[in-house]
């Protein structure tokens, strides 16, 4: 499966601009900030890319950020709450992308690199799980 179908009618059923970017422009800008911050942390001096294998515990991270979001809201920390929501969205997108690649046959995201320790083990585990 390709990321986007090549059939014209099928492509029209995937409204990336009108059904995603125009719905969530601030949230997607926040996700982009998380991507840049993560790249600066995990890949200093390298071009922006998702270094697969450096942080693969998306489910645990989602829940930790959700707890931190609730704490920020309770404390009235509006910037902290927004930052946590952006981190949650980034992790959810990362998990979804990896599942699309691993289970639905989508190609590797153009901005991802697999040359990270741990990625081969994760892929092998997901392949094994999908064949059960």
What is the gist of this entry?
This protein is mainly alpha-helical and 132 residues long.
Summary keywords:
mainly alpha, 6 helices, about 130 residues, globular, two-stranded parallel sheet
Protein topology:
Elements: H1 8-11, H2 16-21, H3 25-42, E1 50-51, H4 58-74, H5 78-103, E2 112-113, H6 119-130
Parallel strand pairs: 1-2
Helix pairs in contact: 3-5, 4-5
Low-pLDDT runs of 5+ residues are: none
Write the element-wise H/E pattern from the N-terminal end onward.
Answer: HHHEHHEH
The beta-strand count equals 2
Question: Helical residue percent?
Answer: 55-70%
Estimated structural class:
mainly alpha
Number of contiguous helices: 6
Radius of gyration: 17 Å
Q: Main β-sheet, in a few words?
A: 2 strands, parallel
Whole-Å distance between the termini? 22 Å
Could you report the average pLDDT, rounded to the nearest whole number? Answer: 90
Explained architecture:
Helices cover 63% and strands 3% of the residues. It has helices at residues 8-11, 16-21, 25-42, 58-74, 78-103, 119-130, and strands spanning 50-51, 112-113. It has a two-stranded parallel sheet. The mean pLDDT is 90.
